[in-house]
Design brief:
Elements lengths: L10 E4 L6 E7 L6 E6 L2 E6 L2 H12 L3 E2 L14 H4 L21 H11 L3 E3 L7 E4 L1
Antiparallel strand pairs: 1-2, 2-3, 3-4, 5-7, 6-7
């Protein structure tokens, strides 16, 4: 994986379907500590703990889980990574996204990062991709 995950040297990632490239980096100075995701001119931010929390949840699932990526304004597919990233039952008690209006797409941008970090396996089909913990 290209990049070290800092603002000066962000991770260079591609969505599971190969359709978009984007950058992510850790921002430990943010409150709460954040994972910044730059997609073109748009910056999304997620709780930094999402990396470890998502990996732990995937391990607990024990099998493939659909990604289910969706914008904040759209419903998330049931039992998907996206649904878990919004669920009141997750460790942060709701959205991992921290910028209202840009809190969705958790199931689009986090899975490739976990794959690149060696924490998960990810399918790379045109649609309906899934992931599981390593």
């Amino acid at each position: 994986m290209a990049g070290t995950g800092t603002r000066a040297d962000p991770w260079q990632l591609t969505t599971a379907n190969g359709g978009s490239q984007y950058q992510m980096w850790r921002d430990e100075t943010a409150d709460p500590p954040a994972l910044a995701c730059q997609v073109g001119g748009t910056q999304l931010r997620y709780h930094l703990r999402a990396i470890d929390d998502l990996h732990a949840w995937l391990r607990a699932q024990g099998d493939w889980v659909p990604l289910g990526g969706a914008d904040e304004q759209k419903p998330a597919a049931e039992a998907s990574v996206e649904a878990w990233g919004r669920s009141e039952a997750n460790p942060v008690g709701g959205w991992y996204g921290t910028k209202k209006g840009l809190r969705g797409r958790f199931g689009v941008y986090l899975p490739p990062l976990l794959e690149a970090l060696g924490l998960a396996e990810l399918e790379h089909n045109p649609k309906n991709n899934r992931m599981r913990a390593r």
